[in-house]
Design brief:
It contains five helices and no strands. By secondary structure, the chain is mainly α.
């Protein structure tokens, strides 16, 4: 049973030859590449939108959670993100849900 659960969540494991890099460093390099037109020749509104989208990642906790697990590898980063998504989904349902004994009661 334990082996089946491990295989379900982790698959075959992670490859040892995968280069591990800091998530925050990679995302910041992406912003710099957009600013310097390294990969795309864009200007004006298109560049502003791409910069806003690249910088908006730093406003949300997912990128920092991924950064906590960057030394463990992409498998653990993905697992941490899945746990975050599950918590973000379950918390409002449990806290505000009618059947869950939540704080908000809807009256008709």
């Amino acid at each position: 049973m334990k082996r089946s659960a491990h295989k379900l969540f982790f698959g075959r494991g992670h490859a040892s030859d995968v280069v591990r890099r800091s998530t925050l460093h990679d995302r910041w390099e992406n912003v710099l590449h957009i600013w310097n037109n390294t990969y795309e020749e864009d200007a004006g509104l298109e560049k502003v939108v791409r910069l806003i989208l690249a910088l908006s990642q730093f406003l949300f906790p997912g990128i920092f959670l991924k950064h906590l697990f960057w030394r463990k590898g992409p498998l653990y980063q993905d697992l941490a993100m899945e746990v975050l998504v599950l918590l973000k989904t379950v918390f409002p349902v449990r806290f505000f849900g009618r059947a869950g004994g939540g704080m908000m009661r809807w009256s008709h």
